[in-house]
Design a protein that fits this description.
Elements (H helix, E strand, L loop, with lengths): L4 E6 L9 H18 L3 E4 L13 H11 L4 E8 L5 H14 L4 E6 L6 H8 L7 H17 L22 E6 L2 H10 L2 E5 L10 H9 L11 E9 L3 H21 L8 H9 L3 H12 L2 E3 L1 H15 L3 E5 L5 H14 L5
Parallel strand pairs: 1-2, 1-9, 2-3, 3-4, 4-5, 5-6, 6-7, 7-8, 7-9
Helix pairs in contact: 1-2, 1-12, 3-5, 6-7, 8-9, 8-10, 11-12
């Protein structure tokens, strides 16, 4: 059995149909609870103008949560780098690392985290860039700035990151396919495979290939691989299934119909599901089957099996619920099941 750390990815859902700001305050509360419970990392996602989610600038939340917690590592899961200047991101996370030594992580992704309209708004008045073409060089430049390893012939090699001392964040790439894992191996970053996005197959070979081909660099000397898994833990399996219906239905509309809707209460989600087509209902079940849903013992068994299959050093738990209390309870139960405080 593979030994692994247990960590958190927080998408900052807006609970209970409340105001957007509630999602931010709940993230702080949850981070403090996860810090006390013994989780290893707490990462914030990035979503722009997305109904139901409240975190467009995770780098701001990282600093605030690091200040509000004691020992847990805090980072992004992730910064959507194609919207931004790698140099500015490097400056931001060097500053965070100075303020919170050995506690800051910089997770990066190439997805837009929103619609084409918000991508255009983020880049305006400049045109949007081709993410597939630009992202690899952006990551390489960002790591070069932080490691002070840009080649002399690089046109921006003389641009140094200030403050020049104080340490660096851990750098990770996030992805759901082999492209990001290959880039992480080539550049010497950590890698997290997103098992919670969609229902497409993500074979364990993605991580195994990353581990075999990893190239050490100034920022990391050995590979670090994680998986991010949608997980709902409750006292009973039936309760966990009910709670999970909220996010599962959200994914049906988002991934099958391109509709980003607010989160619905579990009972309303199930009522809505009954009125959908058979193919939508089948996709609901298929999506639910990609999640880890059940009692603490069931969740621990499934997460251990996944970590073993993927040879993961770390498992990141993603948990979206309609109300805050079941979400908090899910993380508490899981921490006790893994005896994180012990």
């Amino acid at each position: 059995m593979n030994n692994f750390q247990l960590s958190v990815v927080d998408q900052a859902p807006i609970h209970g149909g409340g105001p957007d700001s509630l999602g931010i305050r709940d993230s702080v509360r949850l981070a403090q609870a996860c810090d006390a419970a013994g989780y290893h990392r707490y990462w914030l996602a990035e979503h722009h103008n997305t109904p139901g989610y409240a975190s467009p600038c995770p780098e701001v939340l990282v600093g605030h949560i690091a200040q509000a917690t004691r020992r847990i590592r805090v980072g992004t899961g992730g910064v959507m780098l194609t919207h931004y200047s790698p140099y500015k991101v490097a400056e931001t996370f060097r500053m965070l690392s100075v303020l919170h030594p050995d506690r800051i992580d910089l997770g990066l992704g190439r997805a837009p985290g929103g619609s084409p309209l918000t991508s255009a708004a983020l880049s305006h008045p400049r045109p949007t860039i081709d993410a597939e073409q630009a992202y690899p060089q952006q990551v390489a430049d960002l790591m070069g700035y932080l490691g002070d390893t840009l080649p002399p012939e690089h046109p921006l090699a003389a641009a140094k990151v200030v403050p020049k001392d104080g340490g660096n964040p851990e750098i990770w790439l996030l992805g759901s396919a082999a492209g990001s894992s290959g880039l992480a191996a080539e550049l010497g970053a950590g890698f997290v495979l997103a098992l919670f996005i969609g229902t497409h197959d993500r074979p364990a070979e993605i991580i195994h290939a990353y581990q075999r081909s990893f190239r050490p660099n100034a920022l990391r000397d050995k590979p670090a691989a994680g998986i991010a898994v949608a997980t709902i833990c409750a006292e009973t399996e039936q309760e966990a299934q009910l709670i999970a219906s909220t996010h599962t239905l959200w994914k049906v509309f988002a991934f099958r119909h391109g509709q980003i809707r607010p989160l619905l209460p579990p009972a309303q989600a199930l009522d809505t599901l009954r009125g959908l087509s058979e193919s939508d209902q089948a996709y609901f079940e298929e999506t639910l089957n990609t999640m880890v849903v059940g009692t603490p013992e069931q969740c621990r068994t499934e997460l251990e099996a996944l970590a073993d299959t993927y040879s993961a050093d770390e498992v990141f738990v993603v948990n979206v619920t309609y109300d805050f209390e079941p979400r908090l309870r899910s993380y508490e139960l899981l921490a006790k099941a893994f005896d994180l405080s012990g």
